[in-house]
Amino acid sequence: MKKFLSIVLVLAMVALFIPALAEVTPELILTIASNATDPTNPYSYGLDKFKEVAEEVSGGKIAVVVHKGTLGENESELVEKLTMGAADMVVSSPGFMTGIGVAEVDFLSLEYLFDSFEHWEKCMDGEFGANMRELISQKTGNMFRIMGYWSSSVRDVYAKKAIKSPEDLKGLSIRTQSSQVQQQFFQACGAIPTSVAWGELYQALQQGVVDGAENDYTNLTLKEHHRTPNGKFISETHHDYTTRLFLMDGTKYDRLTDEQKAWIDEASAAATAEERAITYRMFEESKQKAIEAGAEVTEHADIDIAAFKAIAAPSRTSSPPRTT
């Protein structure tokens, strides 16, 4: 009798549970990705926040699958997967768009374009960012819709010696981003811009394949570049307050219901705010981590920034609107 009652009780619980399952069956599953493999990277926090908010505000009608470097450690791979439908939203630097007809995006690669995180944020969240969003949508046939402007912090030079002026870069092979604008800047400083895959850079710095590189505190410390002979000296040139794009296929977005769009918009805004907050916090934390590990830091105030800006100036034919 007890066994019979137990079976009846289990069946009753299952009967109650099945409708609940039906109510939260996802009507939309989104795959989102960044190239960052480290779970403490700001991108990772941003993606996790998107998942949390999207699933919460939709009541489970949206399910989000997060990939942190598992769909590809190169941003070009992620962009390809987005265009092929293998990913729904990805984080990428904007430079790849110059190759598909959006030459204006290289504007974001100009050195010393922004003065601070606050200046960058006000520009990207204001008229300048809105115009860039519309331009990219139009020129790519709505292939790419910007869901948020993210950052990977501010980039500095790190090398086998301290860099206090452009003259200190002369003859040094420096791993740079693929942007032609940025390569031209370092070449004008007397350096030799060199291409090295991000995943191979630690070894290149360790073995002297390159004399240095440029990136932000968080990313260089996560990869422990500061522990190599040619990454030990970090010079706060602050030459690039970076912009990264949280992208979605615009045509797919347009096919969603208004309700689904509202959920995704809310989650994107929350993810953007989270990613930025973590980026700003980790700037200070990563700097301290590097110093504690033995890196030698040349502070921003001790660098001839005016000389660097003078070299960057010829390519800056215009600038984003200034805000007070």
Q: Can you tell me the CATH superfamily of the largest domain?
A: Bacterial extracellular solute-binding protein, family 7
Taking Cα atoms only, what radius of gyration do you get, to the nearest Å? 23 Å
CATH class of the largest domain: Alpha Beta
Question: In terms of per-residue confidence, which ranges show pLDDT below 50 for 5 or more consecutive residues?
Answer: 1-11, 14-22, 318-324
User: In DSSP terms, counting alpha (H) and pi (I) runs of 4 or more, how many helices?
Assistant: 11
What's the end-to-end separation, in Å? 79 Å
Order of neighbouring strands in the sheet with most strands: 7-6-8-5-9-11
CATH architecture of the largest domain: 3-Layer(aba) Sandwich
Major beta sheet summary: 6 strands, mixed
Strand segment count: 11
List the topology elements:
Elements: H1 2-23, E1 28-34, H2 42-57, E2 62-68, H3 75-84, E3 89-92, H4 117-124, H5 127-139, E4 145-150, E5 154-159, E6 173-175, H6 180-188, E7 192-194, H7 201-207, E8 212-216, H8 217-222, E9 233-241, E10 244-248, H9 250-255, H10 258-292, E11 296-298, H11 305-312
Parallel strand pairs: 1-2, 1-3, 6-7, 6-8, 9-11
Antiparallel strand pairs: 3-10, 4-10, 5-8, 5-9
Helix pairs in contact: 2-10
